[in-house]
């Protein structure tokens, strides 16, 4: 159905302009019922979109600033691959102090989602010690030596508590800050994993020290190499994962 589904949010719902940053989705600013909003059209399954919508509603109820889904006129949170969400005002983090605020928000996210069920069809980093595929990850497509290095990095996370991770918080475009709050947007890569994967931030804003930072940085580089394989960025990230 494509963008024709937008009429389910009302006859006055319109697209305004395409937004940058979408890779797997077509993302536009919208006007819905007189208010600015964001629409994301993609190929995720209904189960996947339902998981994300429930997560965002939960976080909103708990006081975290997130782009809450706006329902259709008949109450659905998504339709035909289209999700409409609140538009989050603000700008990206710029200073070390800004990134420390981001780290605090991420830790709040992790605390609010301990025990959360895994996103449908996804795998955590430690699941991939034994599995080869999970949504966008296909380890069979990577060089065997690279897979071994990634798995060695992820093996150091075994036994850690898990929660929802945002999945891409180091991209400043995924953060909208004001003087009063930090909003996390673009939850397309969120899933259940070890929280340290979210905490390898600019300026080491999360305050990880020594071996804790090394474990997190290696596991994060391995994850980004696997999920992006095999573009230039993924190759660069894999080069950072050493043989143990």
UniProtKB/TrEMBL annotation:
Q: Which residues form the Aminoglycoside phosphotransferase domain?
A: 16-203
Which InterPro entries does the annotation name?
Aminoglycoside_PTrfase, Kinase-like_dom_sf
Record's superkingdom? Bacteria
Q: Which Pfam families match?
A: APH
The protein depicted here goes by the name: Phosphotransferase
Q: Which organism is it from?
A: Rhizobium redzepovicii
């Amino acid at each position: 159905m494509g963008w024709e589904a937008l009429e389910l949010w009302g006859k006055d719902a319109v697209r305004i302009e395409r937004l940058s940053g979408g890779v797997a989705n077509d993302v536009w600013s919208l006007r819905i019922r007189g208010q600015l909003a964001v629409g994301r059209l993609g190929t995720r399954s209904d189960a996947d979109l339902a998981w994300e919508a429930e997560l965002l509603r939960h976080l909103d109820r708990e006081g975290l600033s997130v782009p809450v889904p706006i329902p259709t006129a008949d109450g659905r949170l998504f339709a035909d691959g289209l999700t409409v969400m609140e538009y989050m005002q603000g700008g990206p983090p710029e200073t070390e102090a800004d990134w420390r605020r981001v780290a605090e928000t991420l830790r709040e996210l992790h605390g609010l989602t301990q025990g959360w069920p895994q996103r449908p069809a996804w795998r955590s980093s430690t699941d991939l010690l034994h599995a080869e595929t999970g949504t966008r990850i296909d380890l069979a497509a990577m060089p065997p030596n690279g897979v071994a290095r990634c798995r060695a990095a992820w093996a150091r996370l075994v036994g850690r508590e898990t929660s929802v991770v945002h999945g891409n918080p180091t991209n400043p475009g995924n953060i909208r800050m004001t003087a009063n709050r930090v909003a996390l947007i673009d939850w397309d890569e969120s899933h259940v994993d070890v929280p340290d994967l979210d905490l390898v931030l600019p300026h080491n804003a999360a305050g990880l020290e020594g071996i804790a930072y090394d474990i997190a940085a290696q596991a994060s580089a391995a994850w980004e190499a696997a999920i992006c394989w095999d573009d230039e960025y993924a190759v660069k990230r894999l080069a950072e994962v050493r043989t143990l």
